Amino acid sequence: MLVGKNASMDGSTMIARDEDGHDGVKPKLFVTYPATDNTGKTFVSTYNGVEVPLPGKACRYTATPNADQSDGIWDEQGINEYNVGMSATETEFTNARVLGYDPLVEAGIDEDAMVTLVLPYIKSAREGVARLGALVEKYGTGETNGIAFNDHDEVWYFETGGGHQWVAVRIPDDCYAIAPNIMCIEDIKFDDPDNYMYATTIKDFVAENHLNPNPDTFNFRNIFGTKDEADAYYNTPRSWYGQKLFTPDLEQEPTSQEIPFCQHANRKIAVEDVEFFLSSHYNGTPYDPFDTYASGTEKEQSRFRSIALDRNHCACILQIRNGVPAEVAGIQWINLGFYAYSPFVPFYTNNNETPANYQIADEDVSLNSAYWLYKSLQVVVEPHYHQFINQVNEYRDNAQSYALGQIKATDAAVAGQTGAAATAALTAANLATAAAVTKQTEKLLSDLVKQTLLSSKYRWDRGQNL
Prior knowledge:
Helix 10 (about 370-380) runs parallel beside helix 12 and helix 11 runs antiparallel to helix 12 (about 420-455). The chain is of the alpha+beta class. The model has no long low-confidence stretch (mean pLDDT about 95). Helices cover about 30% and strands about 20% of the residues. The chain has a seven-stranded antiparallel sheet. It has a six-stranded antiparallel sheet with strand order 9-10-11-12-13-15, with helices on one face.
């Protein structure tokens, strides 16, 4: 989900994304990389072997990489020291017709490397688009992806198509946009460089290969995307539900293949609204797979792919605030585990160290790891959803209220500080926030485990048959 500065409640820009895996286990970390000088160095991907010379000095940035990096780093999402956010990627698909003329490149710039190769070297969202676009054109890509960038002023969404083609659109300041796992960008205006960017080859590529089904326009989604039956059940219902939340007067079907990308909300959007959407499971509709007491039939409840599901691993909201000093503007809200049961924890990205329990996530389960702590909630809550969900929601609300109070207090405490002093103070504040929410989570987990033990149906009392 992407939110322009005039669409948000506090004037922030926000880009947000859920990272899911192929199964229910993929340990994630939250780290801060220090500024380094990479002059003369070359990045080599352990995922696909692509080699890319690095452009020199890299700035500090946060990221949520895989704990096991034997198959790539997968930095995924973070904010750099210039308060530029990047989230990569939203997996998408190019249609077979386009791939016949521009196949995917096996050793190209893929999701495992995009943040690593771009975020440390940019000072604005627009620079991020330009750098990633140049890399895709030169090296190609082995995947079809959507990538988000934001700074204090702009929000951009970037999509690849085929092996070397790409487009990007600036989200209007007064709009929000929702991107499931399909191409989303619609008409491209080639004479509007303030709001559109694109591959240098894309117009000629489409014309030479007769790829545009509607030549009077240049609709990227229609030319490059897929509109198959799977999209109608796996993807478009998530756009439908998000727009139902924020623009409820719209009349759309969950399976529509024509849901617009950008929309105007009927109110200003708060970070809590984005959190709710990223954690949602068609709440309040017949399609909610968790609510067995809902009005939907068993078939309806299993009809559409839910956002919250057992493959959830790490959700982030990258918030760049306006109206505050640059030192405190960047906040990365992180939700590890199963998004509907875990809280979003805010971290100032102007820091030199992340909390210790966010830096470990071994193969074996340990509650000393933030990832495993929050994933363990799922194990306990899921079989007792109706018994525990009200208590879980209260815990999440309490964590959110605490987090907002911490941000307000920290902003005030750090006011006037700059440089290393501000970074040190914000690092300390992050550690305190993480410790407090971790303690709340440990208490909840302890309580839920005891309730589960005391409510087991497999018990026998001596006098039950007398």
